[in-house]
Amino acid sequence: MSNSYPLPTSVQQLGQTRFTSLYPDQDVDENIAKLLSLSDFAWHCLQSQPALRTWLLDETECANRVVESPLSNSDLSELDDSAAMAKLRLYREKYWLKVAYLDLCCANPIADSIAYISELANQLIDSANQWAFAQVAKVSGTPVDADGNAIPMLVLGMGKLGGRELNYSSDIDLIFSYPRDVATQGGRRSVEAQVFYTKVAQKLIMALNQTTVNGQVFRVDMRLRPFGESGPLVMSFHAMEDYYQEQGREWERYAMLKGRLIGTENRYWSEFYELLRPFVYRRYIDFSVIESLRKMKHMIAQELRRKRLTNNIKLGAGGIREVEFVVQALQMVRGGREANLQTQSLLLALKELVNNQVMTSTEAQLLKQNYLELRRVEQYLQIFADKQTQTLPDDELNQQRLCYLLNKADFSHCLAAIEQVMAEVHNEFEQVIGFESESADLCESEYISAWEMTDVSLMCEPNHDWQAALEDFKARLTKAKIGTRGRDILDKLMPLLLKQLTVAKASGEAFNMISQVLNKIISRTAYLELLYENPGALNQLVALCCHSKWIGEHISRYPILLDELIDPQVLYKPTPLSAYKDEIRQYFLRIEHGDLELQMEALRQFKQTHQLRIAAADATGVLSVMKVSDHLTALAEAIVEQAVNIAWHACVERFGRPANTSDQEKGFAVIAYGKTGGFEVGYDSDLDLVFVHNHDGSSYTDGDKSIDSRQFYLKLAQRLMHLFNTRTASGILYELDTRLRPEGASGLLAINLESYYHYQQTQAWTWEHQALVRSRMIYGQVSLHERFTAIRKDVLCQARDTEKLKKEVIEMREKMRTHLAKGNDELFDLKQDRGGITDIEFITQYLVLNNAMQHPELTTWSDNVRILADAARLGCITEQIQQELVEAYITYRSRYHVMSLDQQGRCAPRAELTQHVALVSNAWQQVFIANSNNT
Predict the structure, then answer these.
(1) Is the dihedral of CA 901, 904, 909, 915 positive or negative?
(2) 360 Cβ contact partners less than 8 Å away, ≥ 6 residues apart
(3) Which of 561, 580, 581 is nearest to 571 (CA)?
(4) Which letter does DSSP use for residue 286 in this model?
(5) Alpha helices, DSSP H, located in 620-684
(6) C-alpha torsion angle, residues 300, 305, 307, 309 (rounded to 10)
(7) Residue 294 — pLDDT band, cuts 50, 70, 90?
(8) Cα separation of 590 and 292, whole Å?
(9) Smallest Cα–Cα separation from 54: which of 98, 10, 14, 89?
(10) Are 889 and 864 in contact (CB under 8 A)?
(11) What is the pTM (predicted TM-score) of this model?
């Protein structure tokens, strides 16, 4: 390869040193030394197979593109797992080394390299499929058609594999299907088709995905299949057709456009393509896909900010993904009517778009040229170490390698060339996809002057309360790490912000709050651009900070939430109460099971995002206080369920499953107390939880590291505590408080449910039975739900001495008031002062404990409002007392809620609440004192 700039001396020396260590008694071969200097992966390959050097230097082999099977000379049914996996991995290592040599030393055209890699991958996947089929058929027999021919499993390659454009170090997205529901014949025992093909799929995945001493063939990703991770591993043609026609989503249309069957064509291929075609390609010109792709691109931009990715040549503006979006958008718009556009290949589709006069030859040539240039850069980045990356290097060695391969003098010239390519791609992307973003009006000169001169008096309607905050913000800028681009955006953004603050008549405190948000994002230009380019998002930020200090603090703590401000229709419309659990399951489909750090961040981001939506609806009056608590409670329950699933998978992977359990029936449950039990979760509430299970110490898990079931559930509970209480970059999830469990802090973290029952019957204090009134099971299988409900009812319905109960309840209340009340003559502690929330809660708990034996219906609910309604209906209190207590309770909670949103604590002016305080105090007297002689 001719190059204007030689390899840096240090890189040359690296290659020569490596060559000498591999071939100590031989003259240094220039090309092999260059290969070793440019690729750590090639170095590792030649360390394990040094004889491949001669093969690489064979010019005939370099020109050869015939792809042979890695298992061609083997009886597949007799080839055991270790032998098959070794052959596949050594084949992959050998031919990927060849491609590295072609690209780094022979200047091979990138289009040829990615096509060759794709064909090699086809062969590896097809060989693994045939071997897996033979292995399963040896034991279970074979599904056959009416003529006695074996019915194969079809493997659909997605993404770049489907388009014959595979990355050098790509993972592979696969979908499996089988043509007919036919039971097997000829095996030890016949099995149904679903069972047979699932075993084939599992073995195929193992053959490719498992890491052995010889490495890994491919990382296999199955999440694009119908229903994602929760769906079956393989589906029949009929089931697949039903899914895509009835439930297929727009992004699945986009993904399926690249779908291509892998292997040698058989009689079932055309049938499979025919059943998918109506889903992917509409028979009319379908411009709706433009909006769908626009939303997908927006989601990718969010992910870039979420993961803090920069210099990404795939996902960034003008990257590889934007070329794919342009071409595939036009394919999906017209492909139903113009069959020549129905191709998985991006380059072929470009050619056909020109033929159909959808795109000019100049436009197509520019896109093709830029696409291949970006793919060439990507190829180099991945060959360096056989890592799937599209991020430009930040270490000196790989920067030097890239400069040499791109024939640039230094890394700044590399960046300039790549940025030019990406700018041209992004321009074309905007033409086709666009974002139709509102163009910011030129801001009146008064606001520009106020910002530039740091003087709010230059505005027509100055708010002098802002002056100190503006000066402080400007002073902080002098110490902030903000580049030229960031400062340019800020200089455009701040006049717009001043104008919006003026329109909103924002207070000095609101200005301070927004300044605090900006201080947190000042060095992250992407967020400044988001606010500048989306006036709606800026408007929402101002509106919400004016409404609520808590929201401003929340956004400043987690700037990622700025993405949520873009679409007010989503922002002010919280998820339906019944949909939180489904939404978090969908959210986690894109996250690897084993990536604990990412799972913990995802849990926190899900909570923060949905809390913001709830708070936005709350602050603007869309939701009442009771509905806000319902939403915050439903959100907490969904997160608890997802966290249990994460912890369960981790424990099962390590220890195996306890006896008679499954992913659906884990034998584990979570009991919620307090605010969570009573449907009253607040924005900063902790969760009072108790963990129970239904196993004893005589059973064991079925894994290699088997432990007794009680230990398993203890470890499960400990992992849950870790998931919730660990402080990550996004803070803690919720503060978990488990001190209400039997024996308190000294008791077992997870306890058998029957032991829990025994404790409640024989050892629990009165205050623990009070707590039980506000308890309910928020996670667990039906049998555990039913048993806990029965236990709770039995305990609460026990016979009690009324006078003793009153005495213990009053003493506990006085002790709490003494230690916790913060009120005084002027300020009323909404929660702990006499006549406040806790008095109402104690009255409610007493009514249940004292009357449930005669009226078991009192145990139906765990929230105060419904318990009080039942108590009045059953004659335990008068309707007047019930109405007064409920009215006071809702008033207190509403006030507490508003004060929480503005971070004002829980003490309100006493004079404003005198009537409610008096009525609650009177009710206390009626229940505990006046009736004392009648009970």
Answers:
(1) positive
(2) 354
(3) 561
(4) -
(5) 625-655, 674-677
(6) 90
(7) low
(8) 19
(9) 98
(10) yes
(11) 0.56
